[in-house]
Amino acid sequence: MAVGAATPDTRTYSNPVLDAPGAADPHVIRVGSTYHLYPTLSGRDYPVFTSTNLVDWERRGSCFTDPRGGLWAPDVFHHAAGDRKFYLYYTVNRERGGGLGAKVIGVAVADSPLGPFRDARDLATPAIDAHMFRDTDGRLFLYYVDLARGFRILAQPMADPRAKKGEPVEVIRPTEPWEKAHGHVTEGPFMVKRGAVYHLMYSGSGADGPDYAIGFATASSPTGPFTKHPGNPMAKRGDGIFGPGHHCVVAGPDGRSLWMVYHQKVDDRVDWKRFVAIDPIWFDEAGILRTRLSRGTAQPAP
């Protein structure tokens, strides 16, 4: 992105914010006044949830299915100027029962954020966790995780939302202790641009462990070179919170505040029991990204 009955000042929320146990890897877009949330859930399809306030969500059915299974980490891109289509970047098994090394990133297209999305083409393999970013000058970049070389994040320039342009560039790889706490992993990329600075956010360590966490790196170009923030991870376990990660960032209903939509683990076990959460995210006076995580406590609503 480029940057109840109570009154608005007293409304609160509490995480989990989405009534969908097991949901993870959420991606959210805003179309008009309505937010659309797409999570990993059954592995067979992508459900869609809608909201006008980021707190009260209604399930609106499924927008995409694939018989191969293993659907993970959806990302939906939409830019109303000129092209009114919606583009779903999905991760799926190359064939039924395929393992991690057989994951494919593809793109599907729809006329509505509710779908149905129709498959268009494959874009990368073995790969997971695609995220499309449109720069302020109109250039498109697809960030994704290359599994051939071990959970490295690449930036792929795009000619349009369905076609690659040139070769991808590696921008992030696992190098820091927190990224190697449970496996050597950097994944779940998400770009936030503020002024002339590109903030490439990502998750590190294994997603099934409690040490899964979020960090970011900055650059003056969308393809880097990126410098990892020395204070990483910016979101991590602690105070009853486990494995926060694989997020997106959206503007709140006021159009000014920023909110991180992400998942947490249920407990400190190594498994896939997760839930969707929201919490505020902001830039401090020094221009550093900050957040404050919560679980099970009333927090001021967006």
Present the secondary structure layout.
Elements: E1 12-13, E2 24-31, E3 34-40, E4 45-51, E5 58-65, E6 72-78, E7 86-93, E8 103-110, E9 118-124, E10 127-134, E11 140-146, E12 152-160, E13 163-164, E14 169-172, E15 186-194, E16 197-204, E17 213-219, E18 227-228, E19 242-251, E20 258-265, E21 274-283, E22 289-291, E23 299-300
Antiparallel strand pairs: 1-23, 2-3, 3-4, 4-5, 6-7, 7-8, 8-9, 10-11, 11-12, 12-13, 12-14, 15-16, 16-17, 17-18, 19-20, 20-21, 21-22
Structural summary, described in words:
This protein is mainly β and 302 residues long. It has one domain (19-296): Glycosyl hydrolase domain, family 43 (Tachylectin-2, Chain A, 5 Propeller). Helix content is 0%, strand content 50%. Strands 10, 11, 12, 13 and 14 form a five-stranded antiparallel β-sheet that branches. A four-stranded antiparallel β-sheet has the order 2-3-4-5, with no helix packed on it. A hairpin with a 5-residue loop joins strand 11 (140-146) and strand 12 (152-160). It starts with 11 loop residues before the first strand and ends with a strand. The mean pLDDT is 94.
Short overview:
This protein has 302 residues and is mostly beta strands. The protein contains no helices and 23 strands. It starts with 11 loop residues before the first strand and ends with a strand.
Entry keywords:
Tachylectin-2, Chain A; five-stranded antiparallel beta sheet; four-stranded antiparallel beta sheet; single chain; mainly beta; 302 residues; 0% helix
- The helix content is under 10%
Q: What is the C-level CATH assignment?
A: Mainly Beta
- CA radius of gyration is 18 Å
What characterizes the major β-sheet?
A: 5 strands, antiparallel
Number of strands: 23
Strand content: over 45%
Low-confidence parts: none
At CATH level 2, the architecture is 5 Propeller
* SSE succession: EEEEEEEEEEEEEEEEEEEEEEE
Which of globular, elongated, flat, extended, rod-shaped describes the shape? Answer: globular
Question: Total helix count?
Answer: 0
